[in-house]
Amino acid sequence: MSKTISLSELRQIKQSLPEGSTRRIADELKLSVDTVRNYFGAHTYKYGEAAGFHYEPGMESGIVVLDDTTILERALQILAEHAPKSVD
Fold first, then answer.
1. Is residue 88 part of a domain?
2. For residue 68, is it within any domain?
3. Of 71, 3, 4, 78, the residue nearest 37 (C-alpha)
4. What residue numbers bound the domain in which 44 lies?
5. Would residue 86 count as lying in a domain?
6. Cβ–Cβ < 8 Å for 39, 51
7. For residue 87, is it within any domain?
8. Nearest CA among 42, 48, 59 for reference residue 26
9. Per-residue confidence band for 26, with pLDDT thresholds at 50, 70 and 90
């Protein structure tokens, strides 16, 4: 399933991840770390693959159409794991 997201929002998710999350996602999904970085907008195609990432310039640094949301979904799960727990 594809998803459209702004590049700035995608980068904010990456920046919000706890240290080591890129490696964790790569290991869990059996991808290179550079492929995961490329998914979040890096350009190290020499070392990793382009991860189904289509970019269109525009507002908020442009938009990205993600062909596969697996990496994004895993990143959001990690963020949820580290979110402060509410006290009722």
1. no
2. yes
3. 71
4. 3-81
5. no
6. yes
7. no
8. 48
9. very high
